[in-house]
Amino acid sequence: MNEATTAKVRQLLAVPKKIVVVGHKNPDGDAVGSCLALAKVLKTMGHHPQVIMPNDFPNFLKWLPDWESILIYDKNVDSSNALIASAEIICTLDFNALNRTGEMEEALENASADFILIDHHQQPDDFAVVQYSDTSMSSTCEMVYHFLKALDADQLITSEVSTQLYTGIMTDTGSFRFPATTATTHKVIAKLIECGAKNSEIHQNIYDTNTPDRLALLGVALRNMKILPEFRAAYITLSQKELDDHNFRKGDTEGFVNYALSLAGVVFAVIFIENKQEKIIKISFRSKGDFSVNEFARKYFNGGGHTNAAGGRSTDSLAKTIRYFISILPSHKNELSHES
Ligand code: 5GP
Ligand code: MN
Predict the structure, then answer these.
(1) In this structure, which ligand is nearest to the CA of 305?
(2) CB atoms < 10 A from the CB of 58, how many?
């Protein structure tokens, strides 16, 4: 974080403030971990923070320190709106545009608070007085560590804060293997372990929570997987019925798309998941090398994200969405077949 940004944050936080800390819709480990950690330190500094998430988050995160303090917007609209309206500062973490908060967008747009953005997604919108945006960062949790260090607040990183930050860095880097994992990321991780994060325990809490239903659903996903060698691509589909048949719960499909990307020779992997309630097909895109799924998701599927991990949606049926996706691929054949 540069000196001008640090100075501005110091000025904003000079006296105790009412602060709302917000993550993106369908919050992941990085969103939940970064919001909880920042709120915890802000509280220690004498502020009055409240974490609000647009909607519920996966059960595999429901052990993190303070997880029960999170207000879920779509279950508490009135109290959340009151907190947003009376907030003096709103910290937006792990997203780049207010529409990433779904139903919360309007309340945030009408808020009179000063916004502090901390995020590692590409092309952030211009809504914050403090914009700490760095697309080279592994995760927003890593950025929160640098943010706290710049404010000389790193001594306030307790074992609980370390656990929250470690979790987000671990989940966003695929356990420290994606390209955005740097030497600095590992140095931050080392600090967090020194400050009390129990790395092996955290890994087990997040990843060793399979149920027979979830593994059976993974079996269905793998059987549904189609490989398109001419585009070095593979995609997976899951219908609402397939989800229902396996008692789907939020988070159950997390990581499924990575199986498609793990195929030798595949550089572009996609999972299409039907959501009858929201009347959309939720899509996750992953790539290896230079092929930008951020651009692809923005251009064709109303989404975005990072170069190698992005999301989007379609309001067509599952079958029509797949036909559309397949019809687009030839125009990207050169990029996809030239990937190293
Ligand atoms: P996932 O596929 O796991 O939902 O998301 C992958 C990455 O893309 C995450 O960093 C997520 O925040 C981002 N992402 C997912 N959906 C969207 C979207 O609709 N718009 C934008 N801008 N980013 C998204
Ligand atoms: Mn993130």
Answers:
(1) 1
(2) 19
